[in-house]
Write a structure and sequence with these properties.
- By secondary structure, this protein is mainly α.
- The chain has 14 helices and no strands.
- It has two domains: 99 residues, no CATH class; 180 residues, Farnesyl Diphosphate Synthase.
- Pfam families: SQS_PSY.
Length: 290
């Protein structure tokens, strides 16, 4: 699913990630990646997917009740939940973000359309924002201000991935573009299925790109507010998202015939842009009710 692309932003192998946090980030990533794959990969039925995700929920219950006071989870889950339990205990991580991720993956099994942006934003609050929240807890920087900025960045990146992967999601019978936006711009799902890059489609995508860009900019001060490696990591992630949006624009919004991606030659430019990012200022990310 398109949400899977969000985990490309997980700094599992980043040289900027402090060695003391690499095991923890890997444990969190392993959980998110495995649960995401349950929801989307293979040919399991919806009932089988939901049952497997329920077992992940039981794994979180096992951690919450005290991993050392209970029998270990089944072998197929032990490789994920035993190390995750140690990471949660070591870094005093909340389990709520893990549960929100799980609820989003379960939603992906049944929900293929979103009526409006509020519904899509709620999904992003559960499928994307928990990643940033957990990273802030690892860095002991999960203040309300930082969490608000982080939510804006994570949702902005999630939306960027959705617009980047319209064709990929089309082939999986998913449409993340809100139905009200399609109707307002006069674009039908038949247009998406046909890869019709019409003036109406370009206007729609210009609107969606601007929405994602606004979120990334509203959360960007977090990158200057956090010190050291995490700040640099975040600057590059934000600039990478903004560059993907640029590439969607310069490609005439035709995401059907060429998936916009970052080229290796662009990283020097992104590093320069990261260096010049503005200082932190009071945040004003879009409000959501989730």
């Amino acid at each position: 699913m398109s949400a899977a692309g969000h985990y490309e932003n997980f700094p599992v192998a980043s040289l900027l990630l402090p060695p003391r946090l690499r095991t923890a980030v890997l444990d969190i990533y392993r959980y998110a990646r495995a649960a995401d794959d349950i929801a989307d990969e293979g040919d399991a039925s919806d009932q089988e997917r939901l049952a497997a995700l329920a077992r992940f929920g039981a794994g979180l219950d096992w951690i919450e009740k005290g991993a050392h006071a209970q029998p270990a989870p089944p072998d197929e889950l032990a490789d994920i939940f035993v190390p995750l339990a140690a990471t949660v205990a070591r870094h005093r991580l909340p389990l709520a973000p893990f549960r929100r991720l799980l609820s989003a993956f379960a939603q992906d099994v049944a929900v293929k359309r979103y009526a409006d942006f509020s519904a899509l934003r709620d999904y992003c609050h559960r499928s994307a924002d928990p990643v940033g929240e957990l990273m802030l807890h690892l860095y002991e920087a999960a203040t309300p201000r930082n969490l608000a900025w982080s939510d804006a960045i994570c949702t902005g990146l999630q939306l960027t991935n959705f617009w980047q992967d319209v064709a990929v999601d089309r082939d999986k019978l998913r449409v993340y573009i809100p139905q009200e936006d399609l109707a307002r711009h006069g674009v039908t799902e038949a247009d998406i299925a046909a890869g019709n890059c019409s003036p109406a489609w370009r206007a729609l995508m210009a609107f969606e790109v601007a929405r994602a860009r606004a979120l990334l900019h509203s959360g960007a001060p977090l990158a200057r507010a956090l010190p050291g490696r995490i700040g640099w990591e975040l600057r590059l992630v934000v600039q990478g998202g903004l560059r993907i949006l640029e590439r969607i624009e310069t490609g005439g919004y035709d995401v059907f015939r060429a998936r916009p991606v970052l080229k290796k030659t662009e990283w020097l430019k992104l590093a320069w842009r990261a260096l010049r990012m503005p200082q932190a200022r009071p945040p004003s990310p879009p409000h959501h009710d989730a």
